[in-house]
Amino acid sequence: MEHTLRAASTCLVNYDRNRYSVPAAYAGRPVSLRAYAERLQIVADEQLLAEHPRCFGRGQSLFNPWHYLPILERKPGALRDGAPFQQWALPDAIRRAQERLMKQPQGDRACVELLLAGRQHGLEPLEVACALALKQGPVTAAVILNHLHRLLSPRRPETLPTPERLRLTLEPVADCARYDRLRPTEVSHAR
């Protein structure tokens, strides 16, 4: 069965006395809800926006925290108390890094920065980067992102051996004094 509904400004669609989240970009827009026996699909613009298990109780809200990530970019403080993030089961290393970051100034913003990187690159590499930061030293967003980018960057090519015929027969001698000879002997700076 398919229903046309409008997503609320809170990124929720009401169906059968329960609320289901949609991506923040679709707040206030019409969407189609397809109800199946065990799940609900929310569709708009010919693409699947969200899929939730169907609730048969009343007054329940099912959140997908990833739907609210664009809102966190503008309001990072919502990460602490926002309903979609209360029961978010992040991997252990990410959760422990988040706890440490939240105790720092601007910790909310740092956590949002990491979650954005997790959305872009996946949670598995972010989890490894958080574990490395927790093990090796300071836990900051910059350190974790550095670990993440090093994990994701391609390996440097191995150095190729130089053929014997291309090796230098006479090594150049470093003579820094020759640069001193290029400078004028007397420079008058007082004018």
What does this structure look like?
By secondary structure, this protein is of the alpha+beta class. It folds into two domains: 61 residues, no CATH class; 86 residues, no CATH class. It contains eight helices and seven strands, in the order βββββββαααααααα. It has a four-stranded antiparallel sheet, with no helix packed on it. The chain has a three-stranded mixed sheet with strand order 2-3-7, with no helix packed on it. β2 and β3 form a beta hairpin. α6 packs across α7. The longest helix is centred in the middle third of the chain and has 15 residues. The mean pLDDT is 87.
Spatial strand order of the main sheet: 1-4-5-6
Classification by helices and strands: alpha+beta
Count of individual helical segments: 8
Helix content: 25-40%
Overall mean pLDDT score? 87
